[in-house]
């Protein structure tokens, strides 16, 4: 893996920056919410929620953006929130918007922090993710994007202390991806969850996800009892909303699927498992039936 500094097109940046909505949750701490829709040329792969922590020794970005141009659009928003340079970027997982913007930030002088599990996932899926992004956002929007190696790789936990700000990063995956991590600020009781939590949008259970351990990861969140919770998708929220939109969705799907399997049901009929209580979530029609089949495949052998 290598770093790449490349030319990028300026035309998408203003438009993409408008798709990123900052929300201050505590002094010096922001959620930056991207759209719930699929990756496209307008959002530059930034269809997720990111985070910013301003400290006395530089800013810390929670997830870098989904492409070089996506990272630059994210930077434009960051510059409206703080004059501090971004000193560190934390990758909370394995999806493209959690790491493929790393190269842009490294070119600005930031150090990237990633769990070993997430880094292995990056290496495993980089080619597939780049191919998919080329299709979804287009070659022009993808210009400059290249997989890059992190500067700091940790096994289970990593702590940053910048001035009076303590930031604890802890691996809790596999959940949505094998290397999902939480970012915890104990002084303000603020938690960035990455893709362990989806709010207002149905989560995605993928072939590389682990729906059983995902609930264990969520229990780690509950044990922290955060005051402020910034999900991987959706606006900043509270624990009760995260429980409703993520934990309860997964619990319902797994409970209903266990009954379906025990009754002799097959994968074809698995899509009919009742998830209607969660039809209020964005992207429900696009993802719920696919989630059901994936969870069936996982639970068939549990």
UniProtKB/TrEMBL annotation:
<keyword id="KW-0732">Signal</keyword>
<feature type="signal peptide">
    <location>
        <begin position="1"/>
        <end position="17"/>
    </location>
</feature>
<dbReference type="InterPro" id="IPR001279">
    <property type="entry name" value="Metallo-B-lactamas"/>
</dbReference>
<dbReference type="InterPro" id="IPR050855">
    <property type="entry name" value="NDM-1-like"/>
</dbReference>
<dbReference type="InterPro" id="IPR036866">
    <property type="entry name" value="RibonucZ/Hydroxyglut_hydro"/>
</dbReference>
<dbReference type="Pfam" id="PF00753">
    <property type="entry name" value="Lactamase_B"/>
</dbReference>
<dbReference type="GO" id="GO:0008800">
    <property type="term" value="F:beta-lactamase activity"/>
</dbReference>
<comment type="similarity">
    <text>Belongs to the metallo-beta-lactamase superfamily. Class-B beta-lactamase family.</text>
</comment>
<feature type="domain" description="Metallo-beta-lactamase">
    <location>
        <begin position="47"/>
        <end position="233"/>
    </location>
</feature>
<dbReference type="GO" id="GO:0017001">
    <property type="term" value="P:antibiotic catabolic process"/>
</dbReference>
<keyword id="KW-0378">Hydrolase</keyword>
<protein>
    <submittedName>
        <fullName>Metallo-beta-lactamase type 2</fullName>
        <ecNumber>3.5.2.6</ecNumber>
    </submittedName>
</protein>
């Amino acid at each position: 893996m290598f770093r790449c500094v490349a030319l990028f097109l300026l035309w998408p940046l203003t438009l993409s920056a408008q798709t990123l909505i900052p929300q201050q949750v505590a002094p010096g701490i922001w959620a930056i919410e991207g759209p719930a829709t699929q990756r496209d040329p307008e959002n530059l792969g930034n269809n997720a929620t990111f985070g910013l922590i301003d400290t006395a020794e530089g800013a810390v970005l929670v997830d870098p953006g989904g492409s070089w141009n996506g990272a630059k659009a994210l930077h434009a928003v960051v510059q409206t929130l703080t004059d501090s340079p971004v000193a560190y970027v934390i990758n909370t997982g394995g999806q493209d918007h959690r790491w493929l913007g790393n190269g842009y930030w490294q070119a600005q002088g930031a150090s990237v922090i990633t769990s070993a599990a997430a880094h292995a996932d990056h290496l495993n899926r980089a080619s597939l993710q780049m191919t998919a992004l080329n299709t979804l956002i287009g070659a022009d929007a993808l210009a400059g994007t290249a997989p890059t190696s992190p500067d700091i790789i940790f096994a289970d936990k990593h702590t940053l202390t910048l001035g009076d700000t303590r930031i604890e990063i802890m691996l809790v995956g596999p959940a949505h991806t094998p290397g999902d991590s939480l970012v915890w600020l104990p002084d303000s009781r603020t938690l960035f969850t990455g893709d362990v939590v989806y709010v207002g949008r149905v989560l995605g259970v993928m072939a590389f996800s682990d729906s059983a351990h995902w609930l264990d990861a969520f229990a780690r969140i509950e044990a922290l009892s955060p005051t402020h919770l910034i999900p991987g998708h959706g606006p900043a929220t509270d624990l009760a909303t995260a429980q409703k939109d993520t934990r309860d969705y997964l619990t319902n799907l797994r409970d209903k699927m266990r009954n379906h399997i025990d009754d002799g049901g097959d994968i074809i009929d698995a899509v009919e498992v009742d998830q209607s209580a969660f039809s209020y979530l964005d992207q429900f029609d696009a993802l719920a039936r696919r989630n059901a089949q994936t969870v069936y495949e996982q639970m068939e052998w549990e």
